[in-house]
Amino acid sequence: METRETTITITVDGREIVCEPGELVIAAARRAGIYIPHFCWHPRMDPVGACRMCLVHVEGGPPKPQTSCTMQVRDGLVVQTQFTNPEIRDAQEGVIEFLLINHPLDCPICDRGGECPLQDQTQDYGSDETRFIEPKRRFPKPVPISPLVNLDRERCILCYRCTRFCDEISGDKMIDTMQRGARAYIYPFPGESFDSYFSGNTIEICPVGALTSAPYRFQARPWDLHQTASVCDLCACGCNVNLAVRVADGQLVRASQFTNEDVNEEWLCDKGRFGHAYVSEPSRITQPWVRRDGELTAVSWDEALKFLGDRLGPLVERGDPDAAALLVGGSLCDEDAYAAQKFARLVLRTNSVDFRLDGGMSVEAPTTPQLTYDDLLGAGHVVLVSLDAREELPIVFLRLRTAATKHGLGVSFVHPRRIAGGDFVRGHLQPLPGTEAIVGAALTAALGQPVAGGLEALASGCGLAPGEVSGFAAALRESARSVIVLGPRLAADPEAVRAWRAVAEVLGARVGWAPRRSGEYGALRSGAHPELLPGWRRVDDASDRAELSAAWGAEVPDAPGASAVDVLRRAASGALEVLWLAGADVLDTPDSRLGAQALYGARFVVLQDVQADDQVEFADVILPAAAFAERDGTLTNWEGRRQTIHKAVDPPGSARADYAIFGEAARRLGRPIGCRRLADVRGELDALLDREAPPFGGGESRVQARVPSGDPDLKLRLLTYRLLYDQGSRVRHTQAIGALTPAGFAEINPADAEAAGVADGAAVRVRTRHGAIVVPARVTTDIRPGVVFVPYAQPGVGARELLSVDDQAPAAAVEPA
Question: Is the overall model pTM greater than 0.90, yes or no?
Answer without folding.
Answer: yes
